[in-house]
């Protein structure tokens, strides 16, 4: 009934103890209410004056008011707790997603992760504020009421105790059916989220290909499936509410019948009969309350399970403490042997394998190869965004590492992917991303070096213009130049990993930028993956990749004089066989 993941919330024990205390108090107040009300009515019935019963009526009101105050305090307290917990879990979730990296998000689906962090967390709040108190009430309140009823009329107590397990049994049977439906509904929800984000991202492509209508139909079908799954879960939820209402009303009616017959036959005085009759609906109230939100319990349970599954996801690759306390310099050494990596266990062939190379100090290493040869994968492994296979050997300054996901390494590294991300923030903030306290003068100079001055003059609010999604949109080439401007601004990072940093630029623009980029490469370790061979002349060393392996390596001189893979690749490029 209670999802065991709940016990992983912070400070949940005191919460359960508090809820249990409040449930006991509530049960006592319910009993008090019934007791004083029946006392007053039965005394007036027995001939006492109304005035003489005023103290009983006042006590009834005190119990009634205290119940309401109890509810209010409980709601306030749980709201605060739920808010704190959801904030904490959201932070943990984001931290975990960051450390699991982009491949994990890609595998799980961006839409799914977004809805989990937003909608999922609000369901979790719901679970804490609504479901937990209802479950605790259900476990405590009926038993205290039943105990009191036994002191008044044993037969009524027996009826209550007999009906309770029948209702629970019914709930379990319906619960099993509802769980299967709720699981299906949750799965549908995840598919819908992924489909929706996917279609928003691909809107431009779909429009261009004239497929937006067909794809729209696809989203419609997925949402229809989700609607059907929701309706089917609701059907079971409504059925269970109806069944519970039916049984509880029937039980109250049976008790009323017994009490009525006893009263008519003079076997029982009015006071206990009235008290039991007032208490009987309150005995069933917690279970009815819970049943009304049973559907939300299942959803909350599913969300908890998926959130904690992400939090428990194993981060492959242990974080050894890399002892690199200074910025990369001429004395430092990077060596990889038998390096391999894959994107998932299901994929048979590793995206890269058996890579060996060794580098000391500064220098420019070019990585070339056909599309799909593994250049980006190598850069991702070197950047620590993708873990290598367990057979790989990586060493920095002869320190063996199982992954390059090392804070000390990543903090001195600068990475430009094929499609750099521009955040929804001002132009200035985007450029000063790595150096937030850079002076305006330095930012303007970096912008000029990246060839973005023209864009800046066109932006309505200059440096303060919001760019990125929801702001001024930039072209692929402009985004790459923003990423380059970030690199021009940050002189402290000595390791540059570039994955086709100029892929979205035309040849003329690239030639212009190349002049400003080359000085940036001085006194740095640069690993530069590209299709465009003219960069290779500037490189100190070249790795030629094909089908996930380094097929040739050496200096530009060596490779151009040798009639090897580089030569063949270069002639294919010149001959137009390779898409540049
Ligand atoms: N996210 C991913 N999930 C699964 N497989 C992938 C993923 N990214 C790349 N691959 C596969 O890994 C192999 C190497 O791809 P990679 O992107 O490293 O090549 P590349 O040389 O950088 O190509 P390009 O120049 O087109 O970017 C390819 O077979 C590709 O299909």
Automatic annotation (TrEMBL):
<dbReference type="GO" id="GO:0042883">
    <property type="term" value="P:cysteine transport"/>
</dbReference>
<dbReference type="InterPro" id="IPR017871">
    <property type="entry name" value="ABC_transporter-like_CS"/>
</dbReference>
<dbReference type="Pfam" id="PF00005">
    <property type="entry name" value="ABC_tran"/>
</dbReference>
<dbReference type="InterPro" id="IPR003439">
    <property type="entry name" value="ABC_transporter-like_ATP-bd"/>
</dbReference>
<dbReference type="GO" id="GO:0005524">
    <property type="term" value="F:ATP binding"/>
</dbReference>
<keyword id="KW-0472">Membrane</keyword>
<feature type="transmembrane region" description="Helical">
    <location>
        <begin position="43"/>
        <end position="66"/>
    </location>
</feature>
<dbReference type="InterPro" id="IPR003593">
    <property type="entry name" value="AAA+_ATPase"/>
</dbReference>
<dbReference type="InterPro" id="IPR027417">
    <property type="entry name" value="P-loop_NTPase"/>
</dbReference>
<feature type="transmembrane region" description="Helical">
    <location>
        <begin position="12"/>
        <end position="37"/>
    </location>
</feature>
<feature type="domain" description="ABC transmembrane type-1">
    <location>
        <begin position="17"/>
        <end position="299"/>
    </location>
</feature>
<feature type="transmembrane region" description="Helical">
    <location>
        <begin position="236"/>
        <end position="261"/>
    </location>
</feature>
<dbReference type="GO" id="GO:0034040">
    <property type="term" value="F:ATPase-coupled lipid transmembrane transporter activity"/>
</dbReference>
<feature type="domain" description="ABC transporter">
    <location>
        <begin position="334"/>
        <end position="572"/>
    </location>
</feature>
<keyword id="KW-0067">ATP-binding</keyword>
<dbReference type="InterPro" id="IPR036640">
    <property type="entry name" value="ABC1_TM_sf"/>
</dbReference>
<keyword id="KW-0812">Transmembrane</keyword>
<dbReference type="GO" id="GO:0005886">
    <property type="term" value="C:plasma membrane"/>
</dbReference>
<dbReference type="GO" id="GO:0140359">
    <property type="term" value="F:ABC-type transporter activity"/>
</dbReference>
<dbReference type="InterPro" id="IPR011527">
    <property type="entry name" value="ABC1_TM_dom"/>
</dbReference>
<keyword id="KW-0547">Nucleotide-binding</keyword>
<dbReference type="Pfam" id="PF00664">
    <property type="entry name" value="ABC_membrane"/>
</dbReference>
<dbReference type="InterPro" id="IPR039421">
    <property type="entry name" value="Type_1_exporter"/>
</dbReference>
<dbReference type="GO" id="GO:0016887">
    <property type="term" value="F:ATP hydrolysis activity"/>
</dbReference>
<protein>
    <submittedName>
        <fullName>Thiol reductant ABC exporter subunit CydD</fullName>
    </submittedName>
</protein>
<feature type="transmembrane region" description="Helical">
    <location>
        <begin position="131"/>
        <end position="151"/>
    </location>
</feature>
<dbReference type="InterPro" id="IPR014216">
    <property type="entry name" value="ABC_transptr_CydD"/>
</dbReference>
<feature type="transmembrane region" description="Helical">
    <location>
        <begin position="157"/>
        <end position="178"/>
    </location>
</feature>
<keyword id="KW-1133">Transmembrane helix</keyword>
């Amino acid at each position: 009934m209670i999802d065991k993941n709940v016990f992983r919330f912070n400070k949940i024990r005191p919460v359960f103890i508090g809820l249990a205390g409040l449930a006991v108090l509530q049960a006592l107040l319910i009993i008090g209410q019934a007791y004083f009300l029946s006392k007053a009515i039965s005394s007036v019935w027995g001939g006492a004056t109304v005035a003489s019963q005023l103290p009983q009526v006042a006590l009834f009101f005190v119990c009634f008011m205290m119940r309401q105050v109890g509810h209010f305090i409980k709601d306030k307290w749980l709201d605060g707790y739920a808010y704190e917990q959801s904030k904490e879990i959201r932070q943990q979730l984001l931290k975990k997603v960051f450390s699991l990296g982009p491949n994990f998000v890609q595998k799980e689906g961006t839409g799914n992760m977004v809805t989990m962090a937003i909608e999922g967390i609000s369901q979790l709040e719901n679970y804490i504020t609504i479901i937990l108190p209802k479950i605790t009430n259900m476990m405590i309140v009926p038993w205290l009421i039943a105990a009191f009823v036994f002191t008044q009329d044993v037969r009524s107590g027996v009826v209550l105790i007999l009906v309770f397990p029948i209702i629970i049994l019914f709930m379990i049977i319906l619960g099993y059916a509802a769980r299967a439906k709720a699981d299906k509904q949750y799965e549908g929800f995840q598919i819908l989220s992924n489909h929706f984000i996917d279609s928003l991202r691909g809107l431009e492509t779909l429009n261009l290909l004239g497929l937006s209508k067909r794809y729209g139909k696809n989203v419609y079908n997925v949402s229809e499936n989700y609607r059907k799954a929701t309706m089917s879960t609701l059907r079971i939820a409504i059925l269970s509410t109806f069944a519970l209402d039916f049984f509880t009303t029937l039980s109250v009616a049976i008790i009323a019948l017994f009490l009525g017959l006893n009263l008519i036959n003079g076997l029982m005085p009015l006071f206990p009969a009235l008290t039991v009759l007032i208490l009987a609906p309150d005995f069933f109230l917690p279970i009815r309350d819970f049943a009304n939100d049973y559907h939300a319990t299942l959803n909350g349970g599913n969300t908890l399970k998926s959130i904690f599954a992400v939090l428990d996801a194993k981060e492959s690759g242990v974080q050894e403490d890399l002892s690199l306390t200074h910025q990369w310099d001429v004395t430092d050494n990077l060596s990889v042997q038998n390096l391999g990596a894959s994107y998932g266990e299901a994929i048979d062939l590793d995206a890269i394998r058996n890579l060996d190379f060794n580098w000391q100090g500064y220098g420019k290493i070019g990585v070339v190869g056909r599309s799909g040869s593994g250049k980006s994968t190598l850069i991702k492994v070197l950047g620590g965004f993708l873990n290598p296979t367990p057979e790989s050997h990586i060493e920095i300054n002869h320190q063996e590492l199982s992954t390059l996901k090392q804070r000390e390494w990543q903090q001195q590294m600068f990475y430009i992917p094929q499609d750099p991300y521009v955040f929804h923030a001002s132009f200035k903030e985007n450029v000063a991303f790595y150096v937030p306290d850079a002076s305006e003068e330095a930012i303007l100079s970096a912008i000029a070096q990246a060839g973005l001055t023209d864009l800046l003059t066109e932006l309505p609010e200059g440096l303060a213009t919001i760019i990125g999604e929801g702001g001024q949109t930039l072209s692929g080439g402009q985004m790459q130049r923003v990423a380059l401007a970030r690199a021009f601004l940050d002189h402290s990072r000595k390791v540059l990993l570039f994955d086709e940093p100029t892929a979205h630029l035309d040849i003329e623009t690239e030639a212009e930028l190349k002049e400003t980029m080359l000085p940036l490469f001085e006194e740095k370790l640069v690993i530069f993956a590209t299709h465009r061979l003219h960069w290779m002349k500037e490189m100190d060393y070249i790795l030629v990749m094909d089908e996930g392996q380094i097929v040739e390596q050496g200096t530009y001189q060596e490779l151009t004089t040798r009639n090897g893979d580089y030569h063949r690749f270069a002639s294919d490029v010149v001959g137009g066989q390779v898409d540049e």
